[in-house]
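Input record (one chain):
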Amino acid sequence: MRKQVMKSTGKQPKVNVAAGFSMAELLIVVALIGIISSFALVTFVKANKGFKLAGATRTLSTYLEKARTDSVRRHGGASINVNSATSYTVNIDFAGTGVATARTVTLPAGTSLRYTLPPSGNIIDPSTTPITITYDWRGRTGTTVLLTVTDSTTGVGSSTLSVGSVGDVSTDTTVTGPVNTQTPQTTVSTTSGIKSMQ
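The corresponding structure, as predicted from the sequence alone:
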């Protein structure tokens, strides 16, 4: 048995060799990747600054609440001294020994701290006019202070902490109108009106 091979009389098809991308296509792709990467980098940097600002605000809020709790526990004496635009000093019982110690907390790079005393809207720089927020044995401050943490390097914005005269702390709120001073508490006698249990 013999195999017969058929010969084609027509032309054989040419195999096209792929040459890849042209230089123009390659430049367009590289340019698009560069543009998208630059937008992503700018967004990442701005988000990172926003996270730092939010973290600094949360830390300050936490120390304010700790000072309030420590003052109630130790019957007064806890305070936050805002004496710089880039840091503040916390005076509370960190060790649990009953004695307050000072700890300076530095804000992240590029953030700054300032305050206002409502109803006045004047922004005060703590470097020139420091303020001490002192809590009494009930956890009250006696005055209302608006603390503002601002990102000073980019246009991320600011975050506000309101420390009320009764010691409460709220974030990103504003105080408008007159701020009423608390009326003195009535002194209650510990012996009148109490029945003897005999």
